[in-house]
DNA sequence: ATGCAATTGCAAATGATTTGCATTATTCCT
DNA sequence: AGGAATAATGCAAATCATTTGCAATTGCAT
């Protein structure tokens, strides 16, 4: 995981090569994403960024997300509710488990599952380009965990 | 896989128990879905049904899909493009591979993957409620397949 | 056949995302 | 530093799939 400053610098380089410009808004949004440890949606990113720059618009957030995605700087996920959520792309590939009660997103990665997916695709005569694996799950009662009150 | 008439009868019974009514539109849409061998979206279902009943409205399709889903008669999927696609629920659980070139949807099922998912969830302290597994893939050149013309 | 509640069709509302356009900001070049 | 060229922004309006309010219709139990 590289630092935020480096991330900004790298992105600025990519922009320059594409004839695009590094703006205050892009810098800010990129920073917000680099600092985020969750999977915020556009509005969430906007809200956080807005505190640093109250002139920022939601349109710019959307446009920037698209740009960042096209540059491979972030990843976009659409979980069950349909809204796009984002995360920076500087981590190894992983999939997500979503707690259906709390909405909490837990990341995991399984080489076995990845291999199995490739095998299945191959058997069907395909090669995987990308995939989506989401587990919607409920917390398991931990053995020895304090009992929940019944019979009030 | 049971017959269409039976499907309609079963659904009518479920409706009666819920104090709901079997209407011409619901009968028609259910039939369309039972005959469908793909994963049509609301507009697609509407188009097919409209040929049998030009007074049908898209709203009714949406309302009916929601009802059918709540009764467990159909399943809803939202692939990458975001629109909801439906299929009847009288088949065994399966996941989908989407051909990124053609959009074709191929069904598959893998007990190994299902087991692996459950194991992963368990290790994280969760029990899976439902999941989503989609492979976006490209057709593999078949060994011995007729060569594509090059150098025209 | 009658009556009431469920359902429908239509149009308008929603909510997330995109887009047109006039204005502003970056870059590049003297 | 100053200016031109044009990319990017903010805002409002447009999209697009889906939902919803409401008045008119229909299904179904009596
Ligand atoms: Mn993640
Ligand atoms: Mn299917
Ligand atoms: Zn994966
Ligand atoms: Zn599965």
TrEMBL record, chains A, B:
Query: Which cofactor does this sequence's record say it needs?
Result: Mn(2+); Fe(2+)
Q: What's a Pfam family this protein contains?
A: FUR
Signal peptide stretch: none
What is its subcellular localisation? Cytoplasm
Q: Which GO terms describe its cellular component?
A: cytosol
> One GO MF term, please?
transcription cis-regulatory region binding
Residues holding Fe cation: 93, 95, 114, 131
Predominantly, its location class is cytoplasm
- What keyword terms does UniProt attach to this protein? Cytoplasm, DNA-binding, Iron, Metal-binding, Repressor, Transcription, Transcription regulation, Zinc
Details of cofactor binding: Binds 1 Mn(2+) or Fe(2+) ion per subunit.
In the record, biological process GO terms are: negative regulation of DNA-templated transcription; regulation of secondary metabolite biosynthetic process
Tell me, how does this one assemble? Homodimer.
Q: Which PANTHER family match?
A: FERRIC UPTAKE REGULATION PROTEIN, ZINC UPTAKE REGULATION PROTEIN
Q: Which family does it belong to?
A: Belongs to the Fur family.
Q: What is this protein called?
A: Ferric uptake regulation protein
Q: Which organism is it from?
A: Bosea psychrotolerans
Name of the gene this protein is made from: fur
């Amino acid at each position: 995981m590289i630092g935020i400053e480096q991330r900004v610098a790298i992105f600025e380089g990519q922009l320059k090569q594409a004839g695009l410009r590094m703006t205050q808004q892009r810098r800010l949004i990129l920073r917000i994403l680099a600092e985020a440890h969750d999977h915020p949606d556009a509005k969430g990113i906007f809200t956080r960024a807005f505190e640093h720059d109250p002139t920022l618009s939601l349109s710019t957030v959307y446009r920037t997300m698209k740009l960042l995605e096209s540059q491979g700087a972030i990843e976009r996920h659409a979980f069950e509710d349909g809204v796009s959520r984002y995360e920076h792309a500087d981590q190894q590939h992983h999939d997500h488990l979503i707690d259906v009660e709390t909405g909490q997103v837990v990341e995991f990665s399984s080489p076995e599952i990845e291999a199995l997916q490739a095998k299945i695709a191959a058997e069907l005569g395909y090669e995987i380009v990308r995939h989506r694996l989401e587990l919607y799950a409920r917390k398991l009662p931990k053995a020895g965990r304090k009992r929940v009150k019944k019979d009030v």
